[in-house]
Each structure stands twice: as C-alpha cells, then as structure tokens.
Design goal:
The complex is a heterodimer of chains A (about 220) and B (about 200). Chain A is of the alpha+beta class. Chain A contains 4 helices and 12 strands. Chain A has one domain: Sandwich (Jelly Rolls), CATH 2.60.120.620. In chain A, the strands form 3 sheets. In chain A, strands 2-10-7-12-5-4 form a 6-stranded antiparallel β-sheet. Chain A has a 3-stranded antiparallel β-sheet with strand order 9-8-11, with no helix packed on it. Classes of the chains: A alpha+beta (about 220), B alpha+beta (about 200). The interface between A and B is large, with 54 and 48 residues.
C-alpha cells in the first residue's frame, strides 16, 4: 500500500456506536507495598486453590481474607472508584451509586502457569490489577462475544476469536463479567501476580413470604 | 481509562468524494424502467431492482467502484474473512426509494457476508440507518438505563456504510419533505461457475 492509499484509507472510520466492553489504564501509583503484602498473603494463606489455574498456578479465591480488605490496597480502590463509575455509565448500567465489591482475590502464576477460560457469571464488572507482569509472562486473552455471528463466514487460518490484550505491570483492565477470558502461559522466568475484583450493584432483595396453608389446601 | 477493541469492527463509514448527480440521474431513469421490479416493503419503502441491471454495474458508478474496492478489501481483512479457491464474491444491488413518511422495518441480510449502503440523496431528517446491538443478550444481564439497544448511524449524501449481513438493522421514518435515495450492494459467497 503506497502513501496515497494510506491517505485515502484515513477517510474510513469504524463507526462503533455500541458500548465498548474492554477498558484499560495504567495505575498511576506505586505498587511496592501492595506487591509485598500480596506475596506475604500468598505465602501464608491456607485456602489457595488450583480451580481454574493450570500448571502450578494458584488462586486465593477461596480465602475469606480478600485483598480489598487490606490497608495496603485502599489507595488502589480509591483510584478505581472514578474509572469504575465512568465505565459503568458508558455501559448504560443502572444503580451506579450502589456499586459494591462482591469479591476480590489474588492469582499467582509461576513460570509455566496460566488461567483457563472462564467468565465471572453474573458479576456486572471485573477489574484486574497486574501487580507483577514481567515480559513474556503472558497476556490476557479475550474471546470475541460475536463469535457466533462472525463464524457464519469462513475466516482466515488461525483466526479462532481469541485475541490478546497486551498487559504490563501496573495495568488495570476492566470488562463485564460475561466476557469469556483466560491468560496466556507464563513463559518468563519470573512470577506473575494479579489482584482481581468483582463489582456488582446491590439490589434490594425481598424475601419470598412463607406460605401459610389454608384450609382449602386440605393439609 | 481508554476503551480497547481487540476484535473485528463490524461497522465502517466513509464519504465518497466523487460526483453524485450523474448517479442520481441514472436512478431517476431506473424508477420508470419497465424491466425493473418494484416492491413495496414494510414501512412503505419502495425497492427497485433488476437482476440483469444491477446499479453497481452502471457506468455511472465506475468512479465509485474504483474508490470503494480497496476499502472493501480492508474491511474484509479486518473481519478476517477468507475465500476458498473454488469460491468467489458475487454482488447484487438495488435502489431504495424512501419516500416522505416511509421507513424500513428491522431485518438482516441472511447469507450475505457484507452490506454496503451508499446514500445518493440523504437530506437531514430523512431517517437514519439504525443498528441493533448484537450483544444485547450479554448486556441485559445487568439492569440498564432505559435507552434501548438501537443506535443511529447519522449520514449525509455521499456517505457509505458497511456492515456485515448478519447485523440487524432498520431505517427510521423519513420525517423530511424530500425523498431519500440509496443504493444497497450485497456481497455473497458463491461457488465459481467452473467448479
């Protein structure tokens, strides 16, 4: 393609009129205290599980102690409040003022480990902080939610709807809980560590009234 | 924070920089051509087509086709589509005459891989192309503000919009005092004649 073609191509734009599911930013503050706390926590936790973690990976998702409860994480969660609100609005979600952290945990990937594909079910929003993401420790991979539409037409070899979201230490990625995702294998010689946070809007649940049998029930 | 889209983009738009008047004149003749099939579709839209005289094959569209070709290739590449050796793209096209007060109901272009809309006359208030968010069944997991899932793609005369055939779309009512004219070109994958 010569320069003329490139100039002409600039007149074409994507006209994306729908909410964007994937957002990314660089956390602007230092991570040292939080990294240190997370490592100590992993060293001492008695509730680590392999769950979706493969080839040596571990997750604290079963540990009642959760990163958002730590003093060391408060600066991060304070920072997260605004982008979380902004993205919530861009997704046209209701009840932004009722957003709550429903769960948080640490994922740990030594060399060779990775996380298998999964969603976060009915979680409204997921935020991942890359506490330690050395070069070649693997990217986040997301699966195209329009897969079933695009697959109606034959696609180029190697196209399987999994796409990399490149990540580095300090990156924060936010996406809806329904987005299928996984990680690449940690091909570095160092550990990868993330803090994962589920966010949902609380709803005023009402209990189902206890049924009172009436004489007509015959019981 | 910035949004990132690592996936193929379904919706593309550009402005054709060439002349529209010669195309409009040709369309006017087409409207009264007795060989042209005229259909009235839902929403009072009048669609005219002649499978032996596709608008995209008119000499009046040579300049447009030359301009469009490289961009169709780029969109095709972005969509990661491919053809087998025995396959080819076949195009068909027609003219939509959106008279005052008319609209087009929601539909897809089943089996067509690409739909190209070329606005020949699109005054303001003549009704926009509207697209339906194909991720509705995901976003609907969370209570949302009541703004629906249809979105306008604003356009002017000379604008060209490309969408995949699977995308649900419609055209809102022509509230203006002028008729709206557009040419739609659909691309379908077919087996080559010699296979």
């Amino acid at each position: 393609m010569d320069m003329k073609d490139l100039e002409e191509f600039k007149v074409w734009n994507t006209a994306d009129v729908f909410p964007d599911p994937i957002w990314k930013a660089k956390y602007p503050h230092k991570l040292f205290r939080l990294q240190k706390k997370a490592k100590e926590f992993l060293d001492n936790s008695e509730f680590l599980n392999a769950g979706l973690e493969r080839d040596g990976g571990a997750s604290s998702s079963s540990d009642p102690e959760q990163p958002h409860m730590w003093g060391e994480s408060q600066e991060f969660y304070e920072w997260l409040r605004n982008p979380s609100e902004e993205i919530w609005q861009s997704w046209n979600y209701q009840n932004g003022n009722r957003r709550q952290i429903t769960k948080s945990w640490v994922n740990f990937h030594p060399p060779g480990a990775w996380t298998d594909e999964h969603t976060h079910g009915n979680t409204d929003m997921v935020a991942v902080l890359y506490l330690d993401a050395p070069t070649d420790s693997g990217n986040l991979q997301v699966h195209n939610p329009l897969f079933y539409h695009w697959e109606g037409t034959q696609r180029i070899a190697g196209s399987n709807s999994w796409t990399n979201v490149p990540i580095e230490t300090g990156d924060v990625v936010i996406f809806p809980g329904w987005l299928l995702h996984r990680t690449e294998k940690n091909n570095s010689t160092n550990d990868r560590m993330t803090i994962n946070t589920n966010i949902a809007a609380s709803v005023n649940f009402q209990n189902i009234p206890i049924a009172k049998p009436t004489p007509a029930d015959g019981r | 924070m910035k949004s990132e889209n690592p996936f193929p983009e379904p919706i593309w738009k550009a402005r054709f920089p060439g002349r529209l008047d010669t195309i409009a004149n040709r369309i006017a003749k087409y409207a009264s051509d007795p060989t042209v099939t005229t259909k009235e579709l839902m929403g009072n839209l009048v669609q005219r087509y002649n499978l032996k005289d596709n608008p995209h094959e008119w000499k009046e569209l040579d300049e447009f086709n030359n301009w469009l070709g490289s961009f169709v290739s780029e969109v095709w590449k972005n969509w990661e589509y491919s053809l087998e050796e025995w396959e080819e793209l076949r195009f068909k096209s027609w003219v939509n005459y959106n008279d005052v007060g008319s609209s087009i109901g929601e539909h897809t272009h089943t089996r067509d891989v690409m739909t190209i809309v070329f606005y020949i006359n699109k005054p303001s208030d003549t009704g926009h192309l509207q697209l339906f968010n194909p991720l509705i069944f995901h976003w609907e997991n969370t209570p949302r503000k009541d703004d629906g899932f249809w979105r306008d793609i604003p356009a002017k005369s000379g604008d060209v919009i490309i969408i995949p055939g699977w995308m649900m779309h419609r055209v809102s009512k022509n509230e203006s005092t002028e008729n709206r004219l557009s040419i739609t070109i659909n691309a379908t994958i077919t087996t080559k004649d010699n296979y």
